[in-house]
Amino acid sequence: xxxxxxxxxxxxxxxxxxxxxxxxxxxxxxxxxxxxxxxxxxxxxxxxxxxxxxxxxxxxxxxxxxxxxxxxxxxxxxxxxxxxxxxxxxxxxxxxxxxxxxxxxxxxxxxxxxxxxxxxxxxxxxxxxxxxxxxxxxxxxxxxxxxxxxxxxxxxxxxxxxxxxxxxxxxxxxxxxxxxxxxxxxxxxxxxxxxxxxxxxxxxxxxxxxxxxxxxxx
Length: 218
What we know:
CATH superfamily of the largest domain: MetI-like
Order of helices and strands: HHHHHHHHHHH
CATH architecture of the largest domain: Orthogonal Bundle
CATH topology of the largest domain: MetI-like fold
Structural class: mainly alpha
Number of domains: 2
């Protein structure tokens, strides 16, 4: 067997292995879709079959008639879009400040921010709930956070805690550090304040970072 034949066999073997692995990976997804079009009796009679014997839309009709699926989808859309928008804006704003501005406690606060990424979400779940429930002057609460529900059963109860994440700030800080400082310095000479520099000079340059950040949030 010459070298060319060995290379051909190796290539064929690789493709066969890749196809087998792909089939094993995709099969459960195809089975799920196929099963959704089967009658209940057909599901148990031919559990591994991908072709329904009696094609039916009953499962989907039952889904939308018994469960407010449209409302669930709307809720998910509102929360996903809101989370992406707030993380992109506040993450970029904080990232710009850490990358381009000088202020007291900059290094210490950034280290604390990175440390917060190591705290599991389950640790802050109960304190976060209590803060949202007893938030003053919201949801019927008085100045001392008593008498109402606060942010409970409200979109803001999910949007506010996740409005900006430590990773979003860290990512945008690293991204802004790759952009030239001379642009900001020239804008300052022309009389621009820092916020104007942030939203007029750097947005287009930071667009790829913002897109990456928004995709991660979605």
